Amino acid sequence: MTAPRSFWTDLGVVAALSAIAALGFQPLYGGIVFVLPALGGLLVSLAAAAAGRLLRAPLITTIAFGIAGYFLFGSAFAMPATATFTVLPNLDTLSGLVRGAVFGWSDAVTLTAPLQEPPYIGVVAYVACWAAALISGAVVAHWAPSAGPGSPLRRCVAVAAPLALLIATILLGTHQVFLGGVRGVVFTALALVWICWRQSADEASVSAGQSGSRRKLIGSATVVLGALLVGGLVGGLVQPAAADRFVARDEIVPPFDPLDYPSPLAAFRKYVNDENKTVLFTESGLPKGSYVRLATMDAWDGVVWNVSADASTASGSGAFRLLGRKLPEPSLFTAGATTKATFTIKDYTGVWLPSGSYPTGLQFEGDDAEQTAQNVRVNSETGTVALTSGVTKGLSYQMEVTALKVPDEKALAAIPPATLDPADRQNVPDVVESTATQYAGDATTALQKLQNLQRSLQNLGYLSHGRPDDSVPARAGEGADRVVELLTQTPMVGDQEQYTTAFALMAGSLGFSTRVVLGAKVPSQGGDVDITGNDVTAWVEVAFQGVGWVPFFPTPTKTDAPKEQTVKPKVIPQPQVRQPPRDHLKDDQLLTPVQTEDQHKKKQQKGFEIPVWAYWAGGSLLLLAAIVFLPLLIVWLLKRRRRRKRSRGPGDRQAAGAWAELRSALAELGLAAPAQVTTRRQLARHYETAGAAIGVAVPDGSLGPLAREVDHAVFSADDVGPEAATALWASVDKVLEQARSGLSWVRRRLADYRYSRI
User: Fold this and answer.
1) C-alpha torsion 385→386→392→393, nearest 10
2) Percentage of the chain with pLDDT > 90?
3) Which of 154, 223, 224, 691 has the largest count of CB atoms under 10 Å?
C-alpha cells in the first residue's frame, strides 16, 4: 500500500492551490475565523484521496470516504460552538452541515459582511474547500492519463477545481479583496510551473534526450515568468477600484439607495405640528430621557440634509447593508450599557425604522418575520435601520441596543476630534463661518469650541415651531436662506431643524466631522411608552478620536421670544447662494423651479447608460482574449515564416527543409528527438516506437521510406525537381496530420502554442 512520489507531489500542489484560493474568504468572514473550516475541508478531502490511492480503492469508494469525513469532522471544523464537546457531531450540527451546504450560499450574498450568523454560516467555507479538494484529489488519485504520461489533461482538470474556488471567493466576497494581486500571481505561477514541469518530466521519461527536456523546461519557465510579469503589470494598471468591483451580493439583492426617498429631517414640522398628539409608535425597555434614532444624515446641498450620496465606503451615512442576526458595532465606537427594547408601530410611516442609539441585534415578531427581515438594510456606522418594504402599522420587533459611552467633560476635553473624510456640504453661506469664529471665541480645546457654539445658540436663540400660539412664529426649513435668516436676524427664532443645521454647519466650518440625527426623546419609563409627534427632536453628533460620535443639543428651550423688538439684520457677509422659501408639507417643493427644470432636462438627456461593471467585464474579456490569442498569433506567424524559409531554394535544400519541418512539428507535439540519434533513418525508427507511447500516432512504416527519399535527394548527385520536392512536403504534411489526429484536443491546443527551432 504505497504510492509513487509523483502522486504526493501532485496532491501537495493541489492542496497549495486550494489554500491560496481559500484565502479569499477573509473579507467575507473578517479576521481569521474562516481558517478552521477552510483548512478542515481541505484536510478531509485530501485524506480521502490519499486513502483511496493507498488502498487501491475505486473512485466511488474515495468519494464515499470524502462524504463520510464531511459529516464526521464537519462539526469540529465548521460548527465547533454547537458541537458536543466542540468536536463531536450532534443533530444540530449534522442538520447545520446540510443546511449550510444548501442554503449557505444565499446567506453568504445576502447577509451583512463580515458573516457571523446563522450558526451554520461557517459551513460555506468548509464545503467549498471540501468540494474543490475532493474533485482535484480524486482526479490525481484515480484518473490515469488517457494518452500516455505526456497528456496534460489530467493536471489541467485538477487545477480547474481550485480555480473555481478562487473565482467563487471573489464573487461571494465584498468590494475589498484580501491580497488579490499576490494570490492571483502566486496561484498562476504555481499552476503553470507544475503543469509544465510535469509535462517535461513525463516526456523526458519516454525519450532519453535530457538536453531537450532541459530546453523545454527553461522555455516553459521563461513563458511562465513573462506571463506573470505582463499579467501583474497589466492587472495592476487596469484593476478597478474597490467600489467598482463586481460582487454577487450587489447583483442578487440590489443595494438600498436612501436618496430615492425624501429627506427625513424635512418632515420635522409635520411631526411636531400636524402629528404632535398622534402616537407614532410605542416603546418599552429604554430608560427615561434616552433617545430613539430614526435617521442620520451628514450631507447638505444647501436645501436639505440627506445621507451621503457616495455609499462605497462603509463609514458613509449612505452605505446600507443587508441584515444579519447580529449587527456589527461601528468602527468609531466605545460601547456602554446594553439594553433590550421592544417597538410596536402605530401611525408612523416611512422607511426609517425606529431604533435605539446603536442597534446590535434585531428580531421581528409575527408570521412574516423572516420575510420582513429580508427587507431590512442597516448602516452600522450611524446606527440607522431602514425597511425597504416600508414601516406599517402593527409591525413589532425586539432590538438589542448598545449606548455610546461618553467620557465626562474633563476627560473629553483632553481628547482631540476624529479626522474623517469630509462630508458633502454645498452652498454653505459665508455667514456660517464668520458666526462660528465669533461664537467659538478664544477657546483652545475642541470641546470648548463646541460648547461655546452650543451655548451661544441656546442663550441667543428662542424655540418656536411656527404654531399660532407661539410668541414669534418661525418659518420652517433647513436651506441656506433659512440658516442666514436664523443667524442674522434678531431675535434668533427657530426649532431643532434650524438650530441643528446651523450648529452642524458651523462646527464643520471649524474642521469638525458632524452629522445631524432625527429621532425622538423617551418621555417616561416603564411599560409601553407612547412616542408622539411632540416627542420628535433632532440633535448633532461630532466625532472624537477613540470615543465615537458625541451628541450635542444646540436647540434653546426658551419660547418667550420678545415681540416688540425690531428685526434688524446683523452686518455679516451675505450667503453664497440664497434659496427660496419652501413648504415642507410638499416633497416637490424641496427643489427650486430652476433645479427641477434642470434635473428634468438632465434626466431626458441622460437616457440609457451602460453600467460601470459592464465596462470592466468587457475589458476583462478583451484582456483575457488578448492573453489567450495574441501568443497563438505570434507562434503561428513564426511557424509560417519558418516553413516559408525551408520550402525555398534548390530541390535538395527543400527536401532537407521538409525533414527539418517534420522534426520541429513532432517536437511541438511532444515527440522530441534524442540527442544521440543523428541519422534520419534512426529518427524514423525512434518516432515510430516512441510516438505510440505518448499518443502521437506516427504511421508505422511510413517514415522509413520518407527518410530514404530525403537522404537520396540531399546526398545524391541527381537534380531534385520542383515536383519531387513538392511531393516530399506533401508526404510530411500527411504524416503530421495523422500524428495530430491521435492527440486529445487539449494537447493539440498546447502544440499550437509551442515553437521549435530544430
Assistant:
1) 20
2) 32
3) 691
The secondary structure of residue 271, as a DSSP letter, is: I
| The pLDDT of residue 13 is above 80 | yes
* Cα end-to-end span (Å), the chain: 44
- pLDDT for 314: 41
**Cα separation, 386 vs 372, whole angstroms:** 11
Cα separation, 342 vs 514, in Å, equals 29
What radius of gyration do the chain's Cα atoms show? 37
Give pLDDT, residue 250.
63
Question: Dihedral angle at the C-alpha atoms of 404, 405, 406, 410, nearest 10 degrees?
Answer: -170
In DSSP terms, 417 is beta-bridged to 544
In eight-state DSSP terms, residue 539 is: E
Q: Is 523 helix (H, G, I), strand (E, B) or coil?
A: coil
Cell numbers 413648504 correspond to what residue? 583
The pLDDT tens digits of the residues spanning 544-596 come to: 999 999 999 999 999 888 865 444 444 444 444 444 444 444 444 433 333 44
Contact 67, 81 (CB under 8 A): no
Q: Residue 135: what residue type?
A: I
Q: What is the mean pLDDT of residues 616-630?
A: 72
DSSP-assigned states of every residue in 308-357: -S--SSTTSTT--EE--SBPPPPSS--EEEEEEEEEEESS--EEEEPB-S
Strand 335-345 and strand 396-404: the pairing is antiparallel
Distance, CA of 175 to CA of 378 (rounded, Å) = 17
Q: How many residues belong to the chain?
A: 758
pLDDT at 144: 57
The Cα–Cα gap between 110 and 378 comes to: 12
Phi/psi for 405 (5° steps) reads -90, 105
C-alpha distances in Å from residue 69, one per residue of 53, 88, 434? 16, 13, 72
At 399, which amino acid appears? M
pLDDT at residue 636 greater than cutoff 80: yes
Cα-based angle 467, 473, 477 (whole degrees, multiple of 5): 90
pLDDT at 554: 96
Task: List CB contacts of 294: < 8 A, sequence separation 6 or more.
Answer: 264, 352, 354, 355, 384, 517, 518, 519, 520, 536
Within 8 A by CB and 6+ apart from 19, the residues are 38, 39, 42
**pLDDT higher at 368 or 116:** 368
Residue 607 to residue 603: CA distance in whole angstroms: 7
What lies within 8 Å, CB to CB, of 267 at 6+ separation is 584
Decide: residue 243, CB within 10 A, 0-12 exposed, 13-18 middle, 19+ buried: exposed
pLDDT one-digit tens code per residue, 209-256: 444 455 555 555 565 565 555 555 545 444 555 555 556 666 665 567
Bridge-based pairing of strands 529-532 and 279-284 is antiparallel
Does the predicted TM-score (pTM) go above 0.85? no
- Torsion, Cα 743 749 755 756, to 10 degrees, reads -10
Q: Is the pLDDT higher at 169 or at 431? A: 431
